[in-house]
Specification:
It is a single chain. The protein is of the alpha/beta class. It is built from 16 helices and 24 strands. It has helices at about 35-40, 65-70, 155-170, 200-205, 215-225, 230-240, 245-255, 260-270, 280-285, 300-305, 325-330, 345-350, 365-375, 385-390, 425-435, 450; strands at about 1-10, 15-20, 25, 45-50, 75, 85-90, 95, 100-105, 115-120, 125-130, 175-180, 195-200, 255-260, 275, 290-295, 315-320, 340-345, 360-365, 380, 390-395, 395-400, 415-420, 440-445, 460-465. β14, α9 and β15 (about 290-295) form a beta-alpha-beta unit. The mean pLDDT is about 95.
Length: about 475
């Protein structure tokens, strides 16, 4: 028996490869599926099943493509209905993979069809659970993502309480827990940075598995402080339910080199969004006017999903050399399949053609501190609510980058704003969006709040509401 966790940091997502006696099961695959086929071929094995723990909302899974390419059967939990062929399993149904067994434990709560897969080894011993978004390390899945459901989030949280206590907690302490997500995912609140643990340790450390917790307490704690889901979640869930275009076709269309002339023509005639995915330092020094920055070096796909509200938006890419395929792939992971191509030769080709470029003013934290002392300046803090509430500059105006599209009217076009986040990535995203909407008096604070804390502002201008 072989188990391999295939973890993708950008999505904080774990897919799983299980092999026994030449038969393979894949659990929660990514959109690009060739890696699983290549792995099976290298081991002279055949992919027999593709198991989905639920209809994912934070990414588009590769189950449809993988089944088409491999001949595998797609398995969902009880009650799942789709626009393509699947096997909708019954609770406690078992599937054989070589000498091991995968047993379906129906664990509704995160969604109605959510299921945990129990792996039973060659000796009939419970070995591991693949818990999807039902049980994370340190947390459980959010109960507010069920698509087209008449149930409330309180109803679903109550279901999750029952699922955990009747299906998962009775399992032995030495059972290994393989969750679908880790720290950084918006599918939970307090996810651990670890990606594998034992169930026994989770029973000791995970607040949601306290043995003395009532259902009412569970519902309250699970829902307390839960942020609204990113806007793309419902769209990704529907793509996973209804099906989608083949990834190979998406990649072929999007990984298309364009001259500066053709790039500009598509931007104008197709109302395409110019998305610059280079490092923020390069964007600051020069970029195509009105382009939006979301760098590949950060949590690229989740920020695209949170900030580009039309999932069918035509997109043109400005990429570092050799990164066009990666950019198209990572866009497709969250359902942004309408990439039209990328600027061949990058910004150098754009400049060589005589076309205009723009820049973003950026200053060091020390320069920012000097400005704060000299004048009454306007500051935008675009960190998340929790970061701001923990510590912030006394006179900073705050709204989280996640909600910039909804809060644009809170920014005054006549003012000059100094923008900061925690480290410098999100502030440049925010500045690029504001610039594209006609806000021209913007100054980025390089290094963000982390750098600001090292200046002498830390002793005079910081507010710590929770201290």
């Amino acid at each position: 028996m072989k188990i391999e966790q295939l973890y993708t940091g950008c999505l904080a997502q774990g897919a799983y490869y299980i092999e026994s006696e030449g038969e393979v099961a894949i659990i929660d695959p990514l959109r690009e599926t060739q890696q699983y086929i290549d792995k099976a071929n290298a081991e002279n094995a055949k992919i027999k099943y593709v198991f989905e723990t639920h209809f994912h909302a934070d990414f588009v899974s590769g189950h449809v493509d993988l089944a088409a390419k491999s001949g595998a059967t797609i398995v969902f939990g009880p009650g799942a209905t789709t626009d393509y062929n699947i096997h909708s399993a019954t609770d406690n149904e078992e599937f054989k993979i070589g000498k091991v067994t995968i047993k379906v434990l129906h664990t509704p709560g995160h969604t109605l069809e959510s299921s945990t897969y129990l792996l039973i080894d060659e000796n009939g011993k419970d070995h591991a659970i693949f818990s999807g978004d039902t049980l994370f390390l340190g947390d459980v899945g959010r109960p507010d993502l069920a698509i087209k459901s008449d149930l409330t989030k309180e109803d679903l949280a109550g279901m999750m309480y029952d699922s955990l206590r009747t299906k998962i907690m009775p399992l032995a302490d030495d059972v290994i827990v393989y969750p679908a997500h880790g720290a950084g995912s918006a599918c939970g609140k307090n996810l651990s940075k670890d990606t594998v643990d034992t169930l026994g340790n989770q029973k000791k450390t995970n607040y949601a598995l306290r043995s003395d917790m009532t259902k009412e307490e569970f519902v309250k704690e699970v829902l307390d402080g839960i942020a609204p889901p990113p806007q793309y979640f419902a769209k990704n869930a529907m793509m996973n339910k209804m099906g989608y275009d083949a990834f190979d076709d998406i990649l072929k269309k999007g990984n298309n080199p364009l001259s500066a002339e053709d790039f500009e023509a598509l931007a104008n005639h197709e109302s395409a969004l110019v998305l610059d995915v280079r490092p923020q330092s390069e964007y600051i020094k020069g970029h195509i006017p009105n382009s939006i920055f979301i760098g590949l070096n950060g949590q690229f796909a989740p920020w695209v999903g949170a900030l580009i509200t039309d999932i069918k938006q035509p997109i043109l890419l400005v990429v570092p050399e050799g990164k066009s395929e990666e950019a198209v792939t990572r866009l497709s992971r969250v359902g942004y399949d309408n990439t039209l191509g990328y600027l061949e030769g990058g910004l150098d080709a754009w400049k060589a053609s005589g076309r205009e470029i723009d820049t973003l003013k950026s200053i060091s934290a020390e320069e920012f501190a000097a400005c704060c002392k000299a004048d009454d300046i306007d500051i935008l803090d675009v960190r998340k609510d929790g970061e701001y509430n923990a510590m912030h500059l006394e006179n900073a105006q705050h709204f989280a980058l996640d909600y910039i599209n909804q809060q644009m009217d809170e920014v005054d076009r006549s003012k000059t704003y100094y923008i900061h986040c925690a480290g410098g990535y999100r502030s440049v995203i925010a500045a690029s969006i504001l610039k594209a909407r006609g806000f021209n008096n913007l100054i980025d604070v390089a290094g963000g709040f982390g750098a600001i804390k090292k200046t002498d502002l830390a002793t005079t201008d910081f507010v710590c509401p929770n201290s």
